[in-house]
Design goal:
The chain has a four-stranded antiparallel sheet with strand order 3-2-1-28, with no helix packed on it. Strands 4-5-6-7 form a four-stranded antiparallel sheet, with no helix packed on it. Strands 8-9-10-11 form a four-stranded antiparallel sheet, with no helix packed on it. It starts with a helix and ends with a strand. Strand 4 and strand 5 (78-83) form a beta hairpin. The chain has one helix and 28 strands. By secondary structure, it is mainly beta.
């Protein structure tokens, strides 16, 4: 019996899906899982959408040239991806992904700003570093304009974190060996910038959940500089013996700090209270980005050298699974469930 037009279409879609799966290409899913893990595949210029329950990639969306870091809007509808290109980049875009479709939208043109890297969403706006300009900036999706830029005067302003009230922002400045403290003035009309000397090559950075300390992982000397937020001074330096620290993340309860070491192929787990190493895990080749699930049950570590994401049980500190990704996974973010 000849196939109807409807059946022919169904057969075509089925065969197309089979062929795409056979060659390792995942078509875009009709619906993004809730919650979802977003993983940037740097060498593929794509964003992988992962179902944390099945540990499977359910879809991929183009993410612009050289995507490095990603954040999601508070409502989980949009993802924003920094298109980096290096510290002297000519790239001037932030890519945007509609997570409800999902599909790539028109990128944000940053005008004279170049080399976007660290990126976070807060208070309805997108905050990001721009290395070429030695600055941080803020984009307002409502007006579709960059509405604020603040220079740090430091080289390779790489990552950023901020306090919950957004009155204090901290950046890691890799080539200046500093952390910048950018604080809003008491009248709310201006900002001050303080360069805090830390160890060599600060890269990964995070704010403790209680808001009292900023920890900066120094890529060049195997140390972690602990900055007291109130005094804006380094109060302690830990020797965690990494070969090249890359990212640093607190667990939501503030008890553990996770540090990826791509040169040593390790994830170092530090007890935040005692400042002592809890465990050193040979996690896989070239670990990069780290995401911790909001409930503190699991951590996800991008293994750029293996095209996988390792899944770590934070209670046992054992690897309990892996997610197969595209080439060079790195920056990740978590999209909470609805």
């Amino acid at each position: 019996m000849p196939l109807s037009l409807k059946n022919k279409g169904t057969l075509f879609l089925t065969l197309a899906g089979f062929v795409l799966s056979f060659f390792g290409v995942v078509p875009v899913s009709a619906q993004v899982p809730s919650p979802a893990l977003l993983v940037l595949e740097k060498s593929d210029d794509s964003l992988a959408i992962v179902d944390p329950a099945s540990l499977k990639v359910v879809g991929r969306v183009p993410a612009g040239k050289d995507p490095h870091e990603v954040t999601a809007s508070a409502d989980g509808k949009l993802a924003y991806v920094s298109n980096y290109g290096g510290s002297q980049s000519v790239l001037k875009t932030i890519s945007v992904v509609d997570l409800t479709a999902p599909k790539a939208l028109a990128p944000i043109d940053l005008g004279p700003l170049r080399g976007a890297h660290g990126i976070e969403f807060a208070d309805g706006k997108v905050w990001f570093t721009v290395e070429t300009n030695k600055a941080i900036a803020r984009y307002d999706p409502a007006t579709q304009q960059v509405d604020w830029v603040m220079g740090t005067g430091q080289s390779r302003t790489h990552m950023l974190v901020f306090t919950k009230d957004l009155r204090k922002i901290f950046t890691s400045n890799v080539n200046s060996d500093t952390v910048s403290a950018i604080e809003q003035t008491s009248d709310g009309k201006g900002w001050t910038v303080t360069a805090i000397p830390v160890g060599k090559g600060p890269e990964g950075i995070d704010l403790s959940p209680d808001g009292r300390e900023v920890w900066a992982a120094n890529s060049g000397d195997g140390g972690v500089s602990i900055v007291e937020v109130s005094s804006k001074k380094v109060v302690q330096t830990l020797d965690v013996k990494t070969k090249h620290s890359n990212r640093l993340r607190f667990t939501p309860d503030g008890k553990l700090v996770l540090i990826s070491d791509p040169a040593g192929n390790e994830l170092v787990v530090v007890d935040a209270a005692s400042r002592k190493e809890r465990k050193r895990i040979h996690i896989g080749r070239n670990p990069q980005g780290i995401v911790v699930a909001p409930d503190g049950s699991r951590a996800y570590v991008a293994l750029s050298g293996e095209n996988k994401v390792a899944v770590l049980d934070l209670k046992t500190l054992e690897v309990i699974g892996q997610i197969a990704t595209g080439n060079s996974p790195d920056g990740m973010t978590w999209v909470p469930g609805k």
